[in-house]
Amino acid sequence: MKIQALPLEKMISATFVGAGCGQEESDVLADHLVKANLAGHDSHGVIRTPIYIQWMRDEKVFGNQSIEKVFETDTTTLIDGQMGFGQWIGKQALTIGIEKCQQQGVAITAIRNTGHMGRIGHWSEMGAEAGLVAIHFVNTSGLGMHCLPAGGREKRLSVNPISIGVPREGKQPLSFDIAAAGTAEGKIKVARNKGVHVPAGLITDRDGNPTTDPQDFYDRESGGIVGAILPLAGHKGYALSFMIELLAGALTGGGASSPGKTKLEQGMLSILIDPAKVGTQEYFAQEVERYTEFVKTSAPSEAGGEVLVPGEIEARNRAQRLAEGLDMDETTWGQLVGAAEDTGVDPSVIEAATP
Fold first, then answer.
1. What residue spans of the chain are helical by DSSP H?
2. What would you report as the CA-atom Rg of the chain, rounded to the nearest whole angstrom?
3. Which of 12, 213, 36 is nearest to 118 (CA)?
4. What's the topology of domain 67-182+230-310?
5. CATH placement of domain 1-58+325-355
6. pLDDT (tens digit, 0 to 9) for every residue of the chain, 355 residues total?
7. H helix and E strand count, the chain
8. Any idea what DSSP says for residue 173?
9. CA separation (Å) from 289 to 12, 117, 263, 317, 329?
10. Which has the least CB within 10 A, 58, 75, 263, 271?
11. Alpha helices of 182-329 — where are they, by DSSP H?
């Protein structure tokens, strides 16, 4: 089915308001989640809404939280998220980082103890749209420890995304956003809801056997995670993930992955750079365009194909999905409607979003 973005966003916002979040926070959450769907990353989109609501009820995340500045200089800010919603805490924190970078030329923002931060590419795009180079490393302190180290049979790492945004004058920023693991857990959840398999080489079942069935990754009765995610590109992805644990976990003070956690506490280390204050702004802008076009002129490997640069597929997805609507499976839609009804959303708001 196809769902239109704007009425869906209003329904999601109303759901969070009904759960007890403030209006501005709810709008930020809905905007972030729907934008993830528009970009084509359904794993970090509105499918998260019922999960977030349940976490809020279980006091694993809290609404209406403000950031706490633990340490601050002209160029650095260490922020405790007070276990608020990551999208809300992230916006507060990155706004500070962007302002400092525009003043000083570089800024480092370290966030710890925050709820799930959503699609991390959102944060690199936020920085790049402000004219900055934005680099982000993210981990969890342990509840999201779903990934195997290369050569290991026991989970020791989080999914650990890295995202980089590069500004382009008058154009869509370049945006790179990947997990250091073979896949994000949310993509397995999407596949389970759709009733389809995932590609080979991404996950194992509870016994460590390779599988492509997302049902094998989850306990069929409780729905809890019993399988594991393999590292991206073997030892290379494992090494990258290991370093992200140290940057996003140890350096922020939130902690690298460890067992026994009951909340999805995320950490994010953000490095922002203003090309205007490096001394190469004009050259940088020209070279970004030259190199982008140079790469795209590479002869395609398949007839009728083309070379895309980071962020291009997301930009195309946005344009198409805004025009045609978001793809939504029946299971996910039912979960969203259930969450909305359960939090007292006005039936007319649900009806407006219904395809």
1. 5-19, 23-39, 49-57, 86-104, 121-129, 185-194, 214-217, 235-244, 281-296, 312-324, 330-342, 347-353
2. 20
3. 36
4. Ribosomal Protein S8; Chain: A, domain 1 (3.30.1370)
5. 1.10.1530.10
6. 999 999 999 999 999 999 999 999 999 999 999 999 999 999 999 999 999 999 999 999 999 999 999 999 999 999 999 999 999 999 999 999 999 999 999 999 999 999 999 999 999 999 999 999 999 999 999 888 999 999 999 999 999 999 999 999 999 999 999 999 999 898 998 999 999 999 999 999 999 999 999 999 999 888 899 999 999 999 999 999 999 999 999 999 999 999 999 899 999 999 999 999 999 999 999 999 999 999 999 999 999 999 999 999 999 999 999 999 999 999 999 999 999 999 999 999 999 999 9
7. 12, 12
8. P
9. 38, 31, 43, 22, 39
10. 58
11. 185-194, 214-217, 235-244, 281-296, 312-324
Tokens for 303, please give them. Answer: 């007839």
Residue keyed to tokens 């030259």: 290
Domain residue spans of the chain: 1-58+325-355, 67-182+230-310
What six digits make up the tokens of 23? Answer: 């209006």
Strands 161-166 and 133-140: antiparallel
Q: Could you tell me if residue 299 is left (phi over 0), alpha (psi between -120 and 50 degrees) or otherwise beta?
A: beta
Percent helix, percent strand, percent coil in the chain, to nearest 5: 45, 20, 35
